[in-house]
Every structure is written in structure tokens, then in C-alpha cells.
């Protein structure tokens, strides 16, 4: 017996063919099972692919929504821009209207100032004429008194007036010496047309208020054919700037200006432009 016969061999024993075949079958079955499982796993793994294929549809809908939202935003922006343009146009129009109003007021103030200046000049001229007429009237009254012995020339003039004309003349002469106030109609102060209107009111005749209208209130008469009670006017018929009442003997009574008040004066000093007869 060999000296190594008692030592177990380190080699593995040979497997039999049947054992190998059995193991191969088992291995084949395992592989088949794995293959089936793998196929099943692949089938399950394909499901997300199907969901992924639907993404383009979802993305297209979302893009349409985004585009629609963008259109709405753009339309809103356009509306805001239109409103802003309208507001700007309204503000510009309001600014221009304000400027035009200011310019109109400025022009109106300038025109008013010019008119007032012209009126002041005319009043000054009338005052100067009235003062001179008053002086001449005083001289005429003195001369009349010396030649006839009467106290005033007015006494003679009223003697030629009759009826309503006499009443108008008497009233006018009774106001001599009273104050002149623009727009006044008595009884303590008058302007020229206010005196004429008040005088004719005494006999029940209603005359227009202003000189322009009074200068066309009756029948036009020539200055060489005057009668006591006729209305005298200075300026054009319909545009007269002053009126008075003829009282006879070449004299008239008128509310001249604030310096002289109501006076009796001679026609020769400042001949009137025309006359109208109401009575």
C-alpha cells in the first residue's frame, strides 16, 4: 500500500452524465423563467412609452392656450393704448379750450378797455361843450332878462307850448340843476335819456330807455321846424349818443354830464344832429 493511500485526494469527484443533464435542465428552466419575466417586464416597461407619445397632443393644447392668452394680452394692451391716446387727446383738447378761453377773455378785456377809453373821451368832449353851452346859456338868460324884464328865457319858451308839449317842457325845466348820474331816471338825478323818458312819462307816453332808440321813437323833423317838446339828438338817427328836449326860443334842456348836471342851453352852441316829434 502506498504511503499516500490514506490521504484523501484534493480533486473533486467526477460528476455523472445524469447529474449534468439534470442541472442543465434546471438551468434551462431557470433561464426560460427569466426570459418570460424579462418579456413581461419589457411589456410593462413599454407602457410609459405610450404615455410619452401622448405628450405632443398635450403640448399642442398647451401651446394653443398660451397663444390664445398671448392674443388676449396683446388685445388688452392695444385697448389700454387706445384709452391712453383718447385720454391724451381729451387732455390736449381741454388745454387748448382753456387757452382759447383765456385769449378770448383777454381780447374782451382789451375791447372793453378801448370802449371805456372812447367813452371817457366822448364824455370829456361833451362836458367841455356842455360847460361852454352853460356859459352861453347864462349869457342868453341875462340878455333876455335885460331886454324883456322876465326872470328867465324859459318863461317865454313855455308860453308857445300847449297841451302835452307844455307839460313835457315844464317838467324838463323843473329838473334843471339836478345831478347827472349815468343810468339814473330820477327823481333826484338823471342821465340824458333818463330825463327825456321821465318827461314824456308825465303825459302817459312810454319811450325807449336809451338815446339810440329815442332818436327814432317819433317822426323825423327838420331843425328849422322845431316845436317845444321835440326830442333833439346828437349823432345819427338810431345811433345817437345824446338826447335833449327842445323847450322853445332856440333853447333845450338836457342832462349833460356829471360836471354840469341838468342844464338849459342854447342850440347855437352845439347844434343837434336831428330831431323827432312824438307829440
Distance between the termini: 193 Å
CATH homologous superfamily annotation of the domain at 114-277:
endopeptidase domain like (from Nostoc punctiforme)
**What's the gyration radius in Å?**
62 Å
The top level CATH class name of the domain at 114-277: Alpha Beta
Order of helices and strands, N to C? Answer: HHHEEHHEEEEEE
Low-confidence stretches: 41-46, 135-159
Main pleated-sheet profile? 6 strands, antiparallel
- Kindly state the mean pLDDT as a whole number? 76
How many helices? The count is 5
CATH architecture of the domain at 114-277: Alpha-Beta Complex
- Amount of helix: 55-70%
Write the layout of secondary structure elements.
Blueprint: H1 17-148, H2 153-159, H3 163-174, E1 179-180, E2 189-190, H4 192-201, H5 211-214, E3 219-221, E4 231-234, E5 242-248, E6 251-257, E7 261-266, E8 274-277
Parallel strand pairs: 1-2
Antiparallel strand pairs: 3-8, 4-5, 4-8, 5-6, 6-7
Helix pairs in contact: 3-4
Describe this structure in words.
This protein has 279 residues and is α+β, with helices and mostly antiparallel strands. The protein has a domain at 114-277: endopeptidase domain like (from Nostoc punctiforme) (endopeptidase fold (from Nostoc punctiforme)). It is built from five helices and eight strands. It has helices at residues 17-148, 153-159, 163-174, 192-201, 211-214; strands spanning 179-180, 189-190, 219-221, 231-234, 242-248, 251-257, 261-266, 274-277. Helix 3 (163-174) crosses helix 4. The protein is rod-shaped and about 120 Å long.
